[in-house]
Specification:
Oligomer: single chain
Order of helices and strands: HEEEEEEEEEEHEEEEEEEHHHH
Helix content: 25-40%
Number of domains: 2
Number of helices: 6
Radius of gyration: 22 Å
Strand content: 25-35%
Shape: elongated
Length: 279
């Protein structure tokens, strides 16, 4: 046990050291991977790993990698078989297989881009050290942290979907409930909007017994507006939905971020990093 703990600690320290170096030198990062991809001869780089000037990206036949520059937000889609070179402001390839480019607005969210390297290292640590959550883990929403909406749908686990539930919502520090009424099954959508940057507590009870509840905080108006502006459609590019999930995580909307990671993981089972982040 002690040896195992020491091994995990050593791994975490090495990962943190590698992240510090990447933060100093990284100018771009990987936003998508499919098939055989190598960086400087090292196969299968982690999703979201940072890239430095001068690194060589090798993309195999019928494979693909997407690279986004931190400063500009420009994304390069690299297809194989071909070799590419990371330069100051662009990814260069051969004339036979030039990269496809697209501009994005993600460069305006500097906090999210800084979070990229941290999340990439975290996903590596979680794949090595994290244990699956036990059955019966809290599935109530929202139950902790912040939420990125002012009109949430509260959710909980209930044995009978037709069961009548007493639902109550309070603003922390106030005497009168914001809402109190009946719900059926395992969810309830609040009929009116909450206040931004306010802490709330809620309970769901059946026959006087509490079956679910939680305490959460709504994000501030500026953060909510930024999230609303940045929210991609279901048909948006994979990397846009990936970066939006990072934004939720960085803003503190941890439960919503985990649910988004889980949806991305179901879509891309070939990227184990996503399943780690959904835990």
């Amino acid at each position: 046990m002690i040896r195992s703990q020491r091994a995990i600690l050593t791994f975490l320290l090495l990962a943190a050291s590698a992240t510090s170096v990447a933060l100093a030198d990284g100018i771009a990062f990987i936003t998508n991977l499919k098939g055989e991809v190598a960086i400087d001869g090292n196969p299968r780089p982690p999703l979201l790993s940072e890239l430095a000037k001068g690194q060589k990206i090798t993309v195999g036949r019928d494979s693909q990698a997407s690279v986004m520059y931190i400063a500009s937000g420009k994304e390069y889609v690299l297809r194989g078989p071909a070799d590419y070179l990371v330069k100051d402001n662009e990814v260069a390839g051969s004339t036979a297989m030039p990269p496809v480019t697209r501009n994005t607005e993600w460069r305006t969210s500097s906090k999210v881009l800084v979070q990229v390297a941290q999340t990439s290292a975290a996903s590596v640590r979680m794949r090595s050290a994290a244990q699956p959550k036990p059955e019966g883990a809290n599935k109530s929403f929202p139950s902790d942290g912040s939420i990125a909406t002012l009109q949430p749908t509260f959710r909980w686990t209930v044995a009978d979907p037709k069961q009548r539930v007493e639902f109550a919502l309070m603003a922390v520090g106030e005497d009168r409930p914001v809402y109190a009424g009946k719900a059926h099954g395992g969810s309830f959508r609040l009929p009116s909007k909450l206040k931004p940057e306010t802490e709330y507590a809620w309970t769901a009870t059946v026959a006087g017994n509490e079956i679910a509840g939680g305490r959460f905080r709504t994000l501030g108006s500026e953060a909510l507006q930024q999230i609303e502006r940045s929210k991609p459609s279901e048909r948006a590019e994979f990397s846009d939905r990936l970066l939006f999930t990072l934004m939720l995580q960085e803003m503190g909307a941890a439960q919503e971020a985990r649910e988004s990671w889980a949806r991305l993981s179901q879509e891309r089972a070939d990227l184990p990093e996503l399943a780690s982040l959904a835990r």
